[in-house]
Amino acid sequence: MTITAKLGGSFVDADLAADLSAAALDLARRFHDGATLWVISPEWEPHAHHVAVEFVHPVIMGKRALPSVALVEPDPVAQARVASQPGDLLIAVASADEPAVVDAMRRAHAWGVLTLWIGSGPRPPAGAANHILWIDSDDPMIPATGTFVLMYHLLWELTHVCFEHPGLLKPASDDCTDEVCVTCSDEGRLGEVLFEPADAVSSALVRTARGEEWVDVTMLGDVAPNDLVLVHAGAAITRLAREVSR
Amino acid sequence: MTESENTSFLYPFIESEETDATSLLDDLAASARDKAAESAQLQQSSLSEYGDTLIAAGTKMAERFRRGGRLYTFGNGGSSTDAATLASLFTRPARGRPVAAWSLAADEAVVTALGNDVGFELIFKRQIIAHARDCDIAIALSTSGNSEDLMTAITEAKQRGLLTIGFSGHDGGRMAVAEDMDFCFTVHSQSIHRIQESHAMLGYRLWSVAQDHMARPLNGAHAL
Fold first, then answer.
1. A189-239 in CATH: which number?
2. Where does chain A hold its CATH 2.30.30.140 domain(s)?
């Protein structure tokens, strides 16, 4: 008996439509500010390529070509790390337990990269990406039935609608004058170590969403490149667990 | 369409002064749901229109896989990625029996060598000449049905005895009327996006039929 797959469009309920819309507005805002969109899909590379070609070479004449690149080397985390700059975008098309994607999504905070995660099956934990665009189905064939294709097609279509509303593309106002504002108080920013200290009294070069900075790591002892640390007031105060580090 | 949308071109400065995204987000969500419904409807009507033909084509594919046949998939742009997804469905299915398949756009060395040396319209045909045996299968995906590089490859494939299958769109284009095409599945839509989504579903159905057929014992045969 032929097993019938559920039609992709039938998954797009009010919640998923709202998630796609919010994600599209963020995409448009970041593209407007000069972002490049990086795409990873370690298990289904063709999806990464399809997203990239969608944005680079739109199927509708007259729509803007936008910078987007599929990262399909064996270590997508290493590729995304070196490719991405603060303000960029990262889309993953992957299940919630794909180790490289779990790792990339976590590190993206230190890279200053906004993340979108498209997938099906068990959901990633809340907050694992800035936008989680999910098909709640345990059918393992979902990635081959056009459902993911529909999702990134919708993302592309909605993103281009946003470009018709330039007033809404300006970054949300985050100026703060309040002296105790959490955003500006430098508490617990995620950083990724670039260079370990040259000696016991030197600082480590750490990459955060704001750029690169020399950070005092004496509280942590040894640190190694690619370690994730929390930076507070010029010092690394905690190292994040290494188990999924690469 | 609301009156303000109808007349917005007269007042371009109004849009640029928008500050509240709520109504835009509502419009986007409504648009997403409309397009998703259209996608589902098109997938359903395509599956219904080609129900019997998909079974016939999938069965013939299974017969070739049983004889050791291989599947070549190819397309341009987004369709080349859908061709690659279809090939990996056959080679690395989440369930069922894997069979040999690959996308002819997958190897950048081969594609650029052929494109540079003999011309873009021959990038797939020359690979068919190199790889194909008469028990193999060729599947071409094109939303227009008119791509020259696909059509020349299909003609070559047919001459070499391959089973030839086309996924097309719009009015079917050249693919729908090509004598070299054993089966052509045209998705009747003007939207490239919606056509590609239906191509994926039709490809999935072909795979399902082929899998079912391969899992059944042949009459009078002892093994594959």
1. 2.30.30.140
2. 189-239
Distance from CA of A237 to the nearest CA of B (A): 38
Q: What is the ipTM of this complex?
A: 0.90
Q: How far is A211 from chain B, CA to nearest CA, in Å?
A: 29
- In the sheet that holds A235-239, the strands lie side by side as A211-215, A204-208, A189-195, A228-232, A235-239
Structure pTM? 0.91
- pLDDT tens track, chain B, 224 positions: 444 455 555 555 555 567 889 999 999 999 999 999 999 999 999 999 999 999 999 999 999 999 999 999 999 999 999 999 999 999 999 999 999 999 999 999 999 999 999 999 999 999 999 999 999 999 999 999 999 999 999 999 999 999 999 999 999 999 999 999 999 999 999 999 999 999 999 999 999 999 999 998 876 555 44
Q: From the list B17, B28, B212, which residue is nearest A21 (CB)? A: B28
Measured CA to CA in angstroms, residue A102 lies from A19, A137, A175, A230, B86 at distances of: 20, 20, 31, 18, 26
Domain boundaries B33-214, corresponding CATH code: 3.40.50.10490
